[in-house]
Amino acid sequence: MTTSSHSEKDRVVIFDTTLRDGEQSPGATMTHEEKLEVAETLDQMGVDIIEAGFPIASEGDFAAVHEIAQRTKNAVVCGLARAAFKDIDRCAEAIKPAKRGRIHTFISTSPVHMKWKLQMEPDKVYEAVVAQVTRARNYTDDVEWSCEDGTRTEHDFLCRCVEAAIKAGATTINIPDTVGYTTPDEYFALFQMVRERVPNADQARFSVHCHDDLGMAVANSLAGVRGGARQIECTINGIGERAGNAALEEVVMAMKVRSDVLPFWTGIDATRLTRASKLVSAATSFPVQYNKAIVGRNAFAHESGIHQDGMLKHTQTYEIMTPESVGVKQTSLVMGKHSGRHAFMHKLQELGYELAANQLEDAFIRFKALADRKKHVYDEDIEALVDEEIATAQD
Ligand code: KIV
Ligand code: ZN
């Protein structure tokens, strides 16, 4: 959200690709209705650009992009197209109803991709960049160009292609880490280098797009922003090809919580993150890992006695953001074998019990014995053992 302390130059645009790169992850297919619901949620939470699909890929993808383009109120609706006129024409048709539509066209620029995948000489790839961006610009003035496998691309060639794409009319330049190979320092330096060397670099917005093969997608995305990129491509729950993409909820909250060292801001309403995560998980049938940052069910849960004691004294002892800030009702103190007296007493108060000191001690011993045997100790278990303790004391 905009506040007086935010300056426009630090605004980072969020480009969500849950419905395109996310849906490409094996087994994450969504139905048409599910896609519409996810797109509506993304739009409501303040995503700037929704990459709604790959229109040439199938009739279903085309229909989803087309209907999302018709319905979306605020966000730019984007479709993906390879470097082929038929892809771009189909994409243009799909985004036509959008209030604001974007064509995202890409071609590989790394030696390994050009030689083995495309089987094209670099000069031919260069020509394709110019031809495809020019074609896309006939349909919309919002054109994004991506150099697939950008982080393994030779620097001179990368700069030549970026310059040509901007000259042909690309307004966003995405340098993807397609195979999750880069590191934060390297990605930071890459953006600095390209922005310094390409003469018309200031005419385009630069974008990061990171995969998580080495578990660095979020760190790399933030490093790219520090290097001058102002668009992050990401997905809800980090779903995506292979190990996934940078997780939207993580990049957004990193910039909010650590604004001291990451002085950037987005238009995302973070209180909607948990709902969006649940929706995407249900639509894709991909469970969210329990310890997932921000949206995992343990992200605001504490079991150890030391942590529970700290939390009962002050929540900032073990939480760096409030659960409410990401749409979780409250912190949970999970009762288990690591819980201590303080948390146990707190739980009894919550359940409405007032015990004498000796009863409390006996009940605590019983609770510990139970917790050693049982993985989950529910409120009902505690009620049962306290009731038993009270009954024994009355005998
Ligand atoms: O990972 C990648 O390179 C992509 C491109 C299509 C942007 O998803
Ligand atoms: Zn990707």
Automatic annotation (TrEMBL):
Residues spanning the signal sequence: none
One Gene Ontology term from the biological process aspect of the record: L-leucine biosynthetic process
Start and end residues of each Pyruvate carboxyltransferase domain: 12-274
GO molecular function, one term: acetyl-CoA C-acetyltransferase activity
Cofactor(s), by name: Mn(2+)
Top-level taxon of the source organism: Bacteria
The protein's Enzyme Commission number: 2.3.3.13
Family: Belongs to the alpha-IPM synthase/homocitrate synthase family. LeuA type 1 subfamily.
Subunit comment: Homodimer.
Protein name, per record: 2-isopropylmalate synthase
High-level lineage: Bacteria, Pseudomonadati, Pseudomonadota, Alphaproteobacteria, Hyphomicrobiales
